[in-house]
Hints:
- The chain has about 160 residues and is mainly α.
- The chain has helices at about 15-25, 45-55, 65-75, 80-95, 100-115, 120-135, 135-160.
Amino acid sequence: MLRTPGPAAVWGADVLYIWLLLLSGPIAVTDEPLMDYLAIKPRTMEGIVADLTGHGNVPRGAHTGMRRTLRRALDETPLDPKSRDVALEALRRWAISRHFLHQAYMDICDESRRMDQRGHSVGAAALWLLAFMLSPRPAVGIMRRRLRRERSTAVRRGGQ
């Protein structure tokens, strides 16, 4: 732990810190806790980012950007070729995992909401199509809720 920099004030700081610990090796098993981790639910991305950075501006692609962050950390860490290959393979496997696809889905949904809020409904719809391709069941649920909300807004406007 002493060979790695402390946790950075970035989205996914806990993941980055553990990645750096794994890259720095050697790894030992201990019965003593090395750090505490407190998960508070529910928390928004804005709240987490505000806690880390002092502002609530969520970076675009916060979830999938973690892959680039971990790759950058790997590139900056001096490793022997075999260890580097093992770490690269771990990143590759994660990038095709169901978990990573869900993270990509979340990023696409966030960006679609941003586009919709700015009035770019065609671009937002295109992103929803991509989200549907990544994860059909949640995408259908979100689209149903969105259509219900739009219908109720239209009914309220028509009644005024």
